[in-house]
């Protein structure tokens, strides 16, 4: 586990509200139980259950969203989630979240994203780089006196998610917001939410607009069987897709020839019973076919996992050694939605040195 932990890693599929620390979730639950807003006997079984079906996971998200409705909490969970990823040597993180409107607390989609940005700015335990193009890459290489402890640095970019329960108008609002927030590190759009709800075509105008405006697009694709949707999503040619669990032969052929990178979430797929067992997980086949892949957590809080554990899980399940895992992690850099300057920086560093380059020795 040690080398999986110390290896520099790239996380491209992590949902903010799915990545909350257990201790924070518990604290927030107790707070609302105390205020009589929720009845613990009604939610206990959802929180405590280990393997949850896809439907049950979305029930849990509804509960989590009740706990995280105000700006302060959104700021807090953003800070904690980024600190947690940095602590396990994630050097580049694309964090996604669904901007939410909540009139009862004066929250608009815009103020939600501002609360996330406030969380990014409030981090003091590690250096967070989230403004594109602001970094003079040379400064990363400049020698800083090697005294004192090492200070970690994490590069964070944001994706704004469209929830499959939303209207076409709300989705367009999210895309426009992403454009406005581009100077603050928003680089793309994600389509997620309960895969059994809604029709993805509702969001096509918003997704097309995003692409025209050169925002990157990633889609949750094939989390449940839906042949027509999967085909249409692949035809759309997003820059990445998440999951790809229920593809049929013709979809696999299309995916492989398209070279669309796949965000692989092993624990999430196994725990939601989306994939029967790890032995038959499509990671094995795609890896052998040298298809672009990136290991991700999806919801580290909800599934009690971490990126380190996902790497270990893949290594143990598919018989991969350190070198292969290193390569997997390094290749992920190619599939980021990072600005070109940052991508060049990451590519220019020999991978084993990446961690030490992004870390700064503190005086
Ligand atoms: C398990 N697989 C999954 N499939 C689809 N969507 C998922 C998901 N896991 C999370 N989300 C999406 O992310 C939201 C929580 O984070 P944010 O409130 O956006 O930060 C969920 O409500 C859902 O829309
Ligand atoms: Zn996801």
UniProtKB/TrEMBL annotation:
Cofactors named for this entry: Zn(2+)
Family listed: Belongs to the metallo-dependent hydrolases superfamily. Adenosine and AMP deaminases family.
Record SUPFAM superfamilies: Metallo-dependent hydrolases
Alphabetized PANTHER family for the sequence: ADENOSINE DEAMINASE (PTHR11409), ADENOSINE DEAMINASE-LIKE PROTEIN (PTHR11409:SF42)
Catalyzed reaction equations: N(6)-methyl-AMP + H2O + H(+) = IMP + methylamine
Descriptive protein name: Adenosine deaminase
Biological-process GO terms, alphabetical: adenosine catabolic process; inosine biosynthetic process; nucleotide metabolic process
Residues annotated as domain Adenosine deaminase: 8-341
Presence of the UniProt keyword Zinc in the record: yes
